[in-house]
Structure formats: structure tokens, C-alpha cells
From TrEMBL:
The keyword Cell membrane does not apply. This is Glycoside hydrolase family 65 protein. Pfam families: Glyco_hydro_65C, Glyco_hydro_65m, Glyco_hydro_65N. GO terms for molecular function: hydrolase activity. SUPFAM superfamilies: Galactose mutarotase-like (SSF74650), Six-hairpin glycosidases (SSF48208).
Length: 767
């Protein structure tokens, strides 16, 4: 834990007291989004202290030219960047002719932020004394509508406390923004048109290179003590990319003046005429009004929480942590559009380019499958199917592969690889396996096999072809090996025979062959169509099987474990407990050479394999490997603690499972890795959900049935969650006396609980 200022609360994230050193961290933690757009919790008014300005629109990106010191053949030409979108929240404010700026106020008291996760709004309030002696109380509420997902609204209230005040509101929209993360300091937005109307304005701009067109809009209304004063702007200032209105008001001491600002974005991804669409957004929002918009927001979030909430009784910090994770996941992606995906930072920052990683398939899909309609998860799979041609092109052009072999990108916006670190782009090829595993996982959980003959089988064939060509035969070992890779543990680069990579390569080939045979038997028309399209022969499949059937896996017979890769035991094996805390995190304290030579693991590849393929190994094998690798794992990957929590629960190491749960659930709230100001770890948040459902709840799907082996940390009185399993809603409630299963559906649901089959009807309890 590196920070501890967030107040424990079951339903809200709360900060009390103004501290300039915390501003950027809080901008991340109090971020809001609605699946179509999102923004960091930047102040609406001017703030001259350190800040990280960020508003983002789903699917809008820029191909920032790759910048490396030494160019290597095969480098992607660009690193896609999620763009800091035009600013619609800005409201410059003058009070008695002085600018409101918390960085320059003589006093700031009773500062409070609240992110209300239950109802989906962000609130900020404070009292401030300006240099001119005016004392004010301010309250601001902001939310991004789930129902009108191109629209947000701000209610900004000011009450002078010690004297009457002349308040000047200067709301603006501005496309002249820059990215925090940019390789060449280029401008990303080209202004096209500025248009004004009665209390409303529009700035239309498009991205350079990608030519996404966006109209940013605003509509302003001024109130005094809750009554519309019906004034128009006294002045209007505009440039090629910005327009600002000025409203002058006078308010008596103790009375409240406010501005309500409606704003947002319409984009060419969804509209032929973005300006017309923006005008329609304003008309709809104004007609509904602030109170109705807020009530609709509360109701929309209530529906989300009805299915996705996890309750924890007796541990407020644990409860706050899981709800924060679930809230951010739903803010980032709601599954409405198969063109969109889940960036590691979501709408909270720019690191990792805002692009799609293997995190989606490995960690996020289970959450979306279980808490939403299966179509949401299917859309995530469709995203990859739609980019299969690009994956084949990537393998062909950058790696010299042939015959339809597909290597999905490590990082992508549109299917093209856009990551510019060699050890990631060309070595971290295990991501192919996660994409295949997600197809298997989707069918296993939903029972919907139709995706595989319709789309998935082509993906599996392209991936199997890749693994067949990527492996090479070692005469010395008389087995197939995979050389020059980086596993999920990015603290070991360019290594040979990473256990996880080799294992999932074998599994992908076996699974692809199994599905080819199943489709041939049950969907002959689809089988014929696909085989003709990809020109796959029985002889080629036999060649695949030679590789899968004779794959090399590094092991230590002495220790009874699988090795991360060849040579891991040659390292100086000093456990983490003997590493000085002042040296952590090592990726911020050590040279990369020192990191690579150390035994320290960002996330344990062997344990990732055990998580995916738990049934392939014995519990004793898990115990030996877990205890060995845990001692060297520094968990400096956000994806690491959740897997360890799940496996610790399997091994009845409940204290350890609980500790890892807290770490994954409060990774950002407590800033474990000293980087939250860059944005939150959105994709790993799904791992927090898995820590409870799969870890403590012990949920698995085997032979078309749900299995549970519930356990409960001693720190909790009880916990509960819901699962949408094949269109039946199952509620699981666990306490120290037993587990209750409640089915909301027309049919009974057969479960296996602690190894015993039971039939859950409307209510079933196990002791």
C-alpha cells in the first residue's frame, strides 16, 4: 500500500481534504464513463497546479509514428494512441473579478470528492477564500448518461458566504488539446468548423491520418436559487478550434448561483452528419432536464448492479474494492458495439495506448459472460474474428509465416499490431493462446456452440497454423521447442521454452483439431465452407499433431515443478522476502539488465497455465508449483494477484487468498504499484471479480454443469454474487454456516457442490 486517503465506504469512493499532491491520483480514481466515452476527474474550472487532462472517446485513436532509438525490421510503423478528446467540461469562473483557481486560493476548506458508484455520478464540493477576500461554497455534480451515451451533464453551484458576488461563468469547448502520451508532440486534431447558437455551441474536428470526425457540443443554462434566469451570453469568443461564452450574474450573500452545462461528443463512427446528431443530443437532453436525466442515470445503474453486484458483509474496504472494480468495468465497456473493446486503462488514462491486449480474453470475458447477456461476450469474440485477416497479414509480413497462419497483435486498435517494443511485439506470442482459450471458455460457459462453426473455427485454424510454424524441432531434445519468446512474465525476455507458451501452443492445436472434427460431424455445410476457404487438408492437420504430440516442457524432477523456461534455476534464487522493500517496485528502481538477470517474477507464467488448465494437473502439482513461484513473484503486474488469490483458495491458504484479494481489489485505491496517477488498471479489475467468484466461491464449469466449492475468509461474515448461467440467474450467498443457492428461472438447475450433485430449485442451502 502506497496511499491511504480514500475513505472506506460501501458504495462510494470518497476523498476529504484538498492536497495538491493527490490531484492526479484522484483524477484517475474518480474517473467516469458510460462505455461510449469517459473522462478523468479534472476540475471544470481553471487549475494551474499539476494535472493530467484527459477525456476519451471509445474507438477514436491516432497512429502515432513509432519512436525507437534503434529500428528493427518488423517494427510496427505506429503505436496507436487513444486520444485526449476535445474538452467539453471546461468552465472558467471569475468571482468579484478574480479567477477561481484552487491552486491560488488563500484557503480551501471542507474539500470533498465522492464517486457514487451505486447511482453513477461524481460530486466535488469545497469552501474557498479567494485572494480578494471573497469566501464561497461550491458544489459540482457531473455524470455521463448511460441512456444517452453521447451526452454528459454538469451542475456547478456557487454560494458566496461573506459578501455579495459578481460571478462570471465562461463555459467553453476546445479541440486544441494535446496528449499526455505522444511520441513526437504532434497535433492530433484538425479543426473543421465552429458553430454557435442560442446558449449552445459546436466544434467539429477530425483526427489527422485516421480522419475520425467528432463534433463536441455544449448547451448552457444559468440559474439563481434554482430558477432559470433566462440570460444569453454577453460575449462569445471563438478561434478555429475553441468557442467560449461569457455569462455575467450577481448573487447575494447566502444565495446560490449555478450553471448547468450539457455536453458531449457525436462521432463519424456512428453518424454521417455529426453536427446534426449533436443538435439532436442537445434537444433531447434539454427536453428531459437535469432532474430526469439524473433519475434515469440512477435507474440505469440500478439495473446493472442488480445483476453484477457482489456483496461482502463485515469488511468495508473489501466491499468498496470489489464495487470499485465492477463499477469501472461497466463504465468502460457495456457490450453494445462489437467494434469496441477494453483498453487496460479504459477511460482513465493514456498508458498502453488505450488499445486491446490479451487481458480481454484472459480476464474480462468471464466477467461479462457471467454478469450480462451472452451476446456481450460474443461481441468481444467477434471483435477478434473481424480482425483475422489483419492477424494473418501480421504473421506473413512481419514474421515470414505462410498459408494463413495468424498472429494476433499484442496491442491493437483495428487489428494491426501497434506496439513498438521488440520483446512485446514479436516475442509475447502467448496472446494467440488466450484468444483461442476465450472461444473454448465461451462455449464451456454459455453452451452456445454456434459461434465456432460461424466464426470461431477460422480463428482457431489460423492460430493452430501459427503454432505449427513457430515451433522448431530440436535434435538434441528430440522434441519440438519454441525459442525466443517472452511469457506473461515480462521480466524475462527472449527466453526459450516458456512453459506457459509451449503448453498453450500444444493445447491450441489439439483444440483446433477437436473442433474441426466436431464441425465436420455436426455442421457439414459450415465445415465444407471453411475448409474450402482456408484450404486445409488432412495432411496438414497431421503435421500440426506431430508438433502438439511431441512438445517439450521444461521441468525440474528434483523440485517436482515445471520451469518458467529453460535455465530458470540457473539464476541466483533469492526469495522476495529477502529483497529490501526500498528496492520495490524493481521496475522503477533497477536497470532492465538487472531485472532480467534476477529471479523476480512480474506474474508467474506457470501459475497462469495452471489457472487456465486446472483440470490438467493434480492439486499436489499445483501446491508445489505455487509455493515455489510465489516466493519469487513481486506482483508488479496488475494481472498477477488475482490468479494467486484463486489458487491460494484452492489450496486452502485462505489468509494468503484474502491478502491477494485485497491487493487486486484495492490495487488502484491504495496505489500498490505507485502509478495510479497514470490511470486505473481496468482489465485486471475483472480478475478481482474472479478472485471472489472462482476463488472463494470455487465456481467452475465442468461437463455442462456449474461446480462450487465455497470458502469464506475469516474477516467476512458473508458474501454473495449472481451468475447468469445459460439464461438462468443463480444467486450464491455464502456465510460461515453454509451456502444458499437461489435460482431465478423457470427450470431447476443441477449443480455440483463440494463434489456432490444437487438440484437447485427456487431455494437450496448446503451446510
Amino acid at each position: 500500500m502506497n496511499q491511504d486517503y480514500i475513505k472506506p465506504d460501501n458504495w462510494s469512493i470518497i476523498e476529504e481534504g484538498f492536497d495538491a499532491e493527490r490531484v492526479k491520483s484522484s483524477e484517475s480514481l474518480f474517473s467516469i464513463g458510460n462505455g461510449a466515452m469517459g473522462q478523468r476527474a479534472n476540475f471544470e474550472e481553471t487549475y494551474s497546479g499539476e494535472t493530467f487532462q484527459g477525456s476519451y472517446i471509445a474507438g477514436i485513436y491516432y497512429p502515432d509514428k513509432t519512436k525507437v532509438g534503434w529500428w528493427k525490421n518488423g517494427y510496427p510503423k505506429y503505436f496507436a494512441k487513444v486520444l485526449n478528446a476535445p474538452n467539453w467540461i471546461g468552465i472558467d469562473i471569475q468571482i468579484n473579478e478574480e479567477n477561481l483557481d484552487l491552486h491560488h486560493c488563500t484557503a480551501v476548506k471542507n474539500f470533498r470528492r465522492e464517486l457514487n458508484m451505486k447511482e453513477g455520478w461524481y460530486n466535488r464540493s469545497f469552501e474557498a477564500t479567494l485572494k480578494n477576500g471573497t469566501e464561497i461554497a461550491v458544489n459540482i455534480r457531473r455524470f455521463l448518461s448511460l441512456d444517452l451515451d453521447e451526452t454528459g451533464i454538469i451542475k456547478y453551484e456557487i454560494t458566496p458566504l461573506n459578501k455579495d458576488a459578481k460571478i462570471v461563468y465562461k463555459p467553453y469547448i476546445d479541440a486544441g488539446v494535446t496528449n499526455e502520451d505522444a511520441n513526437w508532440d504532434e497535433k492530433f486534431w484538425e479543426p473543421l468548423e465552429v458553430k454557435k447558437g442560442a446558449n449552445e455551441a459546436f466544434v467539429t474536428a477530425q483526427t489527422f491520418k485516421t480522419h475520425f470526425k467528432v463534433t463536441t457540443f455544449m448547451h448552457n443554462t444559468i440559474f439563481a436559487n434554482g430558477e432559470n434566469v433566462n440570460i444569453s451570453p454577453s460575449t462569445i469568443d471563438s478561434t478555429a478550434d475553441k468557442i467560449q461564452f461569457t455569462y455575467g450574474t450577481i448573487i447575494a450573500k447566502g444565495q446560490t448561483s449555478s450553471i448547468q452545462k450539457i455536453g458531449g461528443y457525436t462521432v463519424s463512427l456512428n453518424h454521417e452528419n455529426t453536427l446534426t446528431a449533436a443538435e439532436k443530443c442537445i434537444k433531447t437532453a434539454v427536453a428531459l432536464g437535469y432532474d430526469t436525466l439524473l433519475q434515469n442515470q440512477i435507474e440505469a445503474w440500478s439495473k446493472i448492479w442488480e445483476m453484477s453486484d457482489i456483496t461482502i458483509d463485515g469488511d468495508v474496504k473489501a466491499q468498496q474494492g470489489i464495487r470499485f472494480n465492477i463499477f469501472q468495468l461497466n463504465q468502460t465497456y457495456l457490450g453494445k458495439d462489437s467494434r469496441l473493446n477494453i483498453g487496460p486503462k479504459g477511460f482513465t488514462g493514456e498508458k498502453y495506448g488505450g488499445s486491446t491486449y490479451w487481458d480481454t480474453e484472459a480476464y474480462c470475458i468471464p466477467f461479462y459472460m457471467a454478469t450480462k447477456d451472452q451476446q456481450v461476450a460474443r461481441n468481444l469474440l467477434t471483435y477478434r474474428f473481424n480482425q483475422l485477416d489483419k492477424a494473418i497479414e501480421n504473421a506473413k509480413d512481419n514474421l515470414g509465416f505462410k498459408n494463413g497462419a495468424a498472429l494476433y497483435p499484442m496491442v491493437t486498435m483495428n487489428g494491426e499490431e501497434c506496439h513498438n517494443e521488440w520483446e512485446i511485439t514479436h516475442e509475447e506470442i502467448h496472446r494467440n493462446g488466450a484468444i483461442a482459450f476465450a472461444i473454448y471458455n465461451y462455449h464451456r460457459f454459455t453452451g452456445d456452440y454456434s459461434y465456432i462453426p460461424e466464426k470461431g473455427l477460422e480463428v482457431l485454424i489460423g492460430i493452430a497454423r501459427f503454432w505449427h510454424q513457430r515451433a522448431s524441432f530440436s535434435k538434441a531434445k528430440n522434441q519440438y521447442v519454441i525459442l525466443g519468446v517472452t511469457g506473461p512474465n515480462e521480466y524475462e525476455n527472449n527466453i526459450n521454452n516458456n512453459f506457459y507458451t509451449n503448453y498453450i501452443a500444444k493445447w491450441c492445436i489439439d483444440y483446433a483439431e477437436e473442433q474441426i472434427n466436431k464441425v465436420a460431424a455436426e455442421y457439414p455445410a459450415d465445415h465444407q465452407r471453411i475448409m474450402e476457404k482456408v484450404a486445409l487438408s488432412s495432411a496438414e492437420i497431421l503435421e500440426w499433431k506431430k508438433v502438439a504430440g511431441n512438445m517439450y516442457f521444461p521441468t525440474s524432477e528434483e523440485l517436482g515443478i515445471y520451469l518458467q523456461q529453460d535455465g530458470f534455476l540457473d539464476k541466483e534464487l533469492i526469495p522476495v522476502k529477502d529483497l529490501d522493500r526500498s528496492q520495490r517496485p524493481i521496475n522503477q528502481k533497477w536497470s532492465w539488465d538487472r531485472v532480467l538477470r534476477s529471479p523476480y517474477i512480474k506474474q508467474a507464467d506457470v501459475l497462469q497455465c495452471f489457472y487456465f488448465f486446472e483440470d490438467h494437473f493434480s492439486k499436489e502439482e499445483l501446491k508445489r508449483n505455487f509455493e515455489f513461484y510465489e516466493s519469487f513473484t513481486v506482483h508488479e503486474s496488475s494481472l498477477s494477484p488475482c490468479v494467486h488469490s484463486i489458487q491460494a483458495a484452492v489450496l486452502d491458504k485462505m489468509d494468503m487468498a484474502y491478502t491477494f484479494y485485497l491487493r487486486t481489489s484495492r490495487l488502484d485505491l491504495d496505489d500498490y504499484n505507485k502509478e495510479v496517477e497514470e490511470g486505473c488498471h481496468i482489465t485486471s479489475m475483472a480478475g478481482t471479480w474472479m478472485s471472489i467468484v472462482e476463488g472463494f466461491g470455487g465456481m467452475r464449469v465442468k461437463n455442462d454443469q456449474l461446480h462450487f466449492s465455497p470458502k469464506i475468509p475469516k474477516e467476512w461474515n458473508g458474501y454473495s454474487f449472481k451468475i447468469n448461467f445459460r439464461n438462468q440467474i443463480l444467486k450464491v450467498a455464502v456465510n460461515h454456516n453454509g451456502t444458499t443457492f437461489t435460482v431465478d428461472g423457470d427450470q431447476d438447475l443441477t449443480l455440483v457442490v463440494n463434489g456432490d450433485p444437487v438440484t437447485a430449485e427456487k431455494l437450496f442451502q448446503t451446510n
